[in-house]
Every structure is written in C-alpha cells, then in structure tokens.
Amino acid sequence: MSAVWLQGIAAALALVWISLLRAMGRVEPSRSIGPDPEEASDEEHPVEPEAVDVAPTYSFSGWEEVLAKEDGACRFICNNPRWNEVPEAYEDFARGCAEKGIGFVGLEGSDWVAGRITAYFDDCRLMPLLWEENYQVHLAQGKSLFDLLRGTPPFSIIVVSVKDDGSQALNHDWQEKLCEVGIRSLTREHLRHSYINIIWKKYHHTYINLYEECSDGPLAKRYDQGDFVNDFKFPMSLEVESAGYHAGNSSSIKIDGRQYSQNLRGMNIAVFDMIDSKVEGIHRVDAFISMYEDTAIYRAVPAEGEKNAS
Question: Is 249 exposed, middle or buried (0-12, 13-18, 19+ CB in 10 A)?
Fold first, then answer.
C-alpha cells in the first residue's frame, strides 16, 4: 500500500472525527420547553453588548418569601439558567428545597407540563409555552413596572431604553396606569419600536417627561451636565440609545460615561438619585411578555377561569 494511499485514508478519518465532534456539540434535546424568542431575535440581529458596569446580582430572597407565604403549596420549581450566576446561593437554595420536599423540573423537556402539575418559576420566557399548553400563569411575588416607578424616590431621574420590544404586553389597563407614572407615548401599536423615556420624578406623584419618543428607526439622545430642559438642569451627563427589533436590537444607558443598561429585551431602566448623585437602581422588564420585572416569581396552574399575570 503506497504512502499516498495511507495519507488519504488518514485524512479521511480525521475529517470524519472532526465532523462527529462538531455534531456532538450541536446535539439538541428531542423536545425543549419551547423556542427562546429573545435568543432567536438576537441571532437575526447580532449586537455585541457592552457590559453593564454595575449588574444586579441574582437573589433568592423572593423565593424565600414565596415558600414562607405558600406554606407547603409549592411542590415543584422550574430551573432558571440565571441561578448559575450565584452557585453558592443556588446550593443553599437547593438544599433548603430538598429539606422541604420540593422538587426541581428542568427547562429542557416538558414532562412536567404533560403531567399537568403545578409549578413555580421565575423565568418569564416560559409563559408563551405554558399559555399554549392551557396553563394559567399567576403572579406569586414581584413588582410590576407600575409598582417599580411608583416606588422610586422623589428627586430621581428615571431612564428607559427599549431593546427589541417594550409594548406587546401593554393592554389598555396597563397603558392607563403607566400614564400616571410618565409612560405616555408607548402603546401596544408600537410593537418592536425603539423607545426612549427620560422622566424627572419631581415629587411623590409628579412625573415630568424630559424626553419621550417612539420610532420604527433607532433613537439616540444626549445631555451634558448642566444642560437645561425647560426649568430642569441635568446634574449628570446622559447618553441613551434604543433600537427596536428591526432597527438594530440594542439598548444603551450611559450616565457619566458608565453603562447601566443590561441590553436585554424589553425595558432597560436606570434610576438616578439626584440627592445622592448616583444610580440607585438598575432594572429590566421584559414587556414583550410580562409587565413585571425580572425578580418576579410566578405560579403555573393547569386550570382555567382565573386572570393571567400578564
């Protein structure tokens, strides 16, 4: 057998081996919990996100409140990939759940859905599948966007920047409530539009729009420290950008040069405390699905007749 023939066989085997390795890396479960519309939209509009300078840390405190309040009613909890951000806290939480006889069900695979069990979860991306499977979704713990804005202290600047979409979950009732806290131009008719809102919370119940705009194209707004809008003087520099799904699919909120947008689908929010001269809160509401912020916890019930938490 010639050396050339042997080299050809070796090369062919190497190609087969590489192909197998690549295929193994792409193996998907036979049935997943459903497509992730956020990841799908990001694939169509690849944007290299700028890391938020002070990202919120995941906390299990909400779960502790829910488990205490539900008093044994919670028997199953659906895993959330975010839990891996805080492995030590996750281990403590899992240990506590095991002691209470609470089981975990996975995002991948839907045996628990087919089994029609009641489960609790804190990843709102599950909602579309659950609705499709005739589940009712109820809020167990958490703040709505309205509660969040009502709870911000007076003499604050609230900055909102939308990525992808911030309007699909806005029904008429939510639109009326949000008008009270400064969100006035965004409606359900603005699906996947860009949106920026800069709100001056002057007093406890006084919300003044310094700038608010929706557009089907990208938006950007900048104010330097000392700039005036009517009788308001900016105490910091601010650069805000918003690009809806069809306009670039990104969000940016820079205050004094630091990035505070998490660049996630929905409403990315930063709250600047004018008295302490610092950002006191970073939030995200995935208004493509829900009007509650990321820390909310839900209960999925295979029953009908009650109002959804949407």
Answer: buried
